[in-house]
Amino acid sequence: EKRKDLLTLKDYEKLFEDYQKTTIKDNPELLDNIAELSRSHRVALMCFEADVNMCHRGVIARNITQKENVEVLNI
To answer: Which PANTHER family does this UniProt record tie to the protein (predicted)?
Structure first.
């Protein structure tokens, strides 16, 4: 629903700001699970968005790199 009116990078930035304040804040255990997996395995976050600036996986990756010393590759 929220994605249907996204036209500009600014629209996406607003969406991901809201995502950070709600979904990320309300689900820290999910980030912890991904971070824990990344300590011993390669982890891939996948989405249909080609541009990482327009995808929630970038928000997730930024949060994880704040907790863990991991390298993020956008391929």
So the answer is: BLR5642 PROTEIN
